[in-house]
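Render NAD(P)H-dependent oxidoreductase in 3D.
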Amino acid sequence: MSNILEHRTWRYATKKFDATKKISHQDLNSLLEATRLSASSYGLQPYHVFVISDPEVRERLKPVSWNQSQITDASHLIVFAHATDFGEELVDDFITNLSDTRNIPLDGLNGYAEMMKSNLVGLPTDVKASWAGKQVYIALGNALQAAAELKIDTCPMEGFQAEEYNKILGLTEKDLNAAVVLAVGYRSEEDQTQNLPKVRKSKEELFTHI
């Protein structure tokens, strides 16, 4: 089996982490950099990623996460929060970054900027939030696969009260909404689910070649 499939077969949604094992600074940086390099629509990345290691903050998050042990036992907790609204500044910041990174004069990017603004800025607020939320899951997918390559265990989690996360982490005033949580660390030997075979649709059920 090729490495690309080995990594994906190895990973699973870890139910019990070993609270004594911590991710090294180097591996955590690699994981976060892989997440930063994720694709997004227009490259705009309309989200922010919070890396939570503070045990007191995680203890506050646990009750509003159905008391799941991963919240406090994992090495780190990564919260992906998407923009709930935005204006032209989202595009302007990206265009400035693009100009600086690729050494392109700003006035040479005016048409590109106006195209993005015309497609995004005038959308209803709920549509903007939905679009931004979809971008989060692209980043999450990249984080999951990068973690597997680093042999870091993960558990993606939607079982939490987003409004309470927003209050605890101060997201609402930043026009952000907690969309999905990723617990990262190392599996406990007591986690019996690690030995269960994956249950997925067959290739015949899942894929159609046209």
